[in-house]
Design brief:
With 659 residues, the protein is α+β, with helices and mostly antiparallel strands. The protein contains 23 helices and 21 strands.
Amino acid sequence: MKKEHEKRNCFQKSLARVCLVSSLVSCLLLASYNPLFAQEPQHSSKPPVHGNHWIAAAGKPLSVSVGSMIFSQGGNAVDAASAMLAASATIWDSMGWGGETQALIHNPNTGEVHAINALGAAPSGATAEYFQNLNYRTPPDYGPLAAVTPGTPGGLMVMLAEFGTMSLAEILAPSIEMARGYPIEQIQAERIEFDKQILRIWPDAARVMLPNFDPANPGEWSAPYPGQLFVQDDLHDTLSKLVEAEQTALANGANREDAIMAAYERFYRGDIAEEIVRANQASGGLFTMEDLDNWQVYIEEPVSTTYKGVEVFKLNSWVQGPVMLQMLNMLEDMDLQRMGYNSAEYIHTLYQVMSLAFADRDFYYGDPYFPPEEPIAGLLSKDYARDRAALIDPRRNQPDITPGDPYPYQGDETNPFSRYLENWEPNIEPEWGGVRNSASIAPIEISETDSNGNVVSIMSHDEGFHAGTTSIQAADKEGWVVSITPSGAWLPAFVAGSTGMSLSQRMQSFELSEKRSPYNTLEPGKRPRATLSPSIALKDGKPYMAFSVQGGDGQDQWLLQFFLNIVEFGMDVQQASEAANFESFQLHSSFGEHYSQPGRIVLRSDMNTLVLRTLIRLGYELEFREKTSGPITAILFNQEFDTMTGGASNFGDDTAMGF
C-alpha cells in the first residue's frame, strides 16, 4: 500500500515536471506575443525643446543656428527652412548644392499642404541602351554619369519666392559667410579623408575637399583637419552671383518674387549653368544646356491618407512617400496597442506590412509626369490595403511577397504591366543568407571605375541605406510648417568646375529594364524614384506633426514607427525620436545593384531576449546595432495650448531649437 502511494506520488511529481517544462516551452514560444513582454519605452537621452513662437530642427547644430538667426530677423518658417537648407548644403551635411530638395509646406492662410518637387532629371543623352552598351547593369553610383540635373538651388528659390517673406540675399548671407570658412567638424573631416581615394580622381573635387596637399606628392593630399577653417572660395562666388542677379533685378524694378527668379534664371540658363555643363561634359558626363533649361520645379498637391483621425501628407510617387500611407492603411484596423510596443507580434506585423507595401513601391512607383500614370488611387485605397493585409501569415516571415494589383481598386483600368507582374521575383543579393555582425558600416570598396571616375558598386547594401540625406523642420506661431528631406551630391562627390557645387548621384536609382520596375525605367528627362520622404500630419485640420529622417530605403520604415510611437503608444516627440526601431532589408535597395535581403532585420541591441527567440522562430535573420532610431528630426504641436515641441534623435548631430 505504501509502495503504491509512493509510486503514485512519484508519477504525480513527474507529471508536474512535464507540465512545468511544457508550460515553460509554451511561454518561450508565446510570451513575446503577449504585450506584457513588449519593450518599455525608454527615457530619452536629451530633453524635448519647447516653443510657442518657433521651432527649428535639422541634422547639424550649425544649420539650426542659421534657422534661429532668420527667425530672430522676423522671417517665417519657410524663410528659416530655406536658410537651413542652404547652410546644410554648404557644410555638406550628407548632401550638397547639386542634389535634390523635396518639401512639404503647410500654408496657414489656406489650410492647404503644398508639395515641392525639386528632384533632378536624367539628361537627354541618358537612356537605358546607353548604359547597357557600356555594360552597366544599373547606372553608376558616383561620378559625372551618375548625375541628374541639380534640384536644390531651384527648389530653394521657388519655395522662398512662393511662400517666404525675405530676400535671397538675406537667406544666403549665413551660407556665403560659411563658404569663406567655417570650422569643420571631426566627423565631416574624417569622411572626406575616408573618401579621398575617389575625390582625387576629380581635380575640382580634390582642390575643394583636400586643401592640405603637396602637389608633388598627390598621395599625401588630405582632408581639412578637425577645427580647421574649411574654405570654399568657388562656392562663395557662385552663391554671390545668385545674390547679384537678385539685386540687379530689384534695382531694375522687379518685385521680391521676380527678383528671386532672376537668380533662378542665372543658375539654370546663365553662366552658372554653362560652367556646370562644361565641367560635366569634360569629364564624360551627359549634361547639355537644354537639360538645365528644360528642368523645372513643380508645386504639387501631395497625397494623403487618414489614420485614426490623423491626416498624413506625403509627396507623390516620384519618391517613396506613399509607401508609408499604404502601411498606415493596412495597420489601421489592427490593435497595435494590444500587441505592445516592440513585441514579437508587433515587429512581425510591421515587417510584413512593410514587405507588402515596399513590393508595391518597387514595382509601381515612378515619375508621374511620364506615362503610364502610376495607379496611386488604387494603391492608397483602403479596400486594397485590407486585401493586402489579409495576406500576412502570423506564423512566419514571407520572403517571396510580390506586388499586388491595385488597378481593380480604382475602376475598370487594366494593368498595363500585368505581363511582368505575373513573373515578378525579388532581386535577391547573390551572397545573401545568414547572420552577420554589422555593428559598423563596411568601408567603401571600388569594384569598378573608368577614367572619368564613374564608379560602380561602390556602396555596400548598408551604405545605400545611410549614405546621404539630411532632414529639416521649421514651424512658426502663424502656422507655417515646413518639412524638408534634401539629399544628393553627398560625399564622395564630383564637383562641377569652378562652381564649387557637387552634383547628384541619383541616376543609380533608375532601373535599366522595365521588367522589375516598369514605372521607374530610365528615360531622358525623367526623374528617378527617390527615397526622400518629408512628412506633415494634421489633426482636425490643424498642424499636428512635421517629421523626416535620413537613411535611404529606411526612411519610411523609421517614420512609420516614429508616428506609431506617438499616436499608438503615447510617447513624447523626443522619446519617439530616440525609441528603439527595427529596419527591414527585404525590399529592393534603391542604390547599387538594387538587391534585396529577405528576412534580414536590424534591431537595437537591448531587445527582449524572448522577443528575439520568437523572431528567429518566425524565420528572421537578426542583426544588432546600438542605435536604430534613424536620425529623425520632428515637431509635435499641442493644439490645446497652442505650443510646439521639437525633437531630434540621438543618432547623430541632429538638433532642435525653439523660442
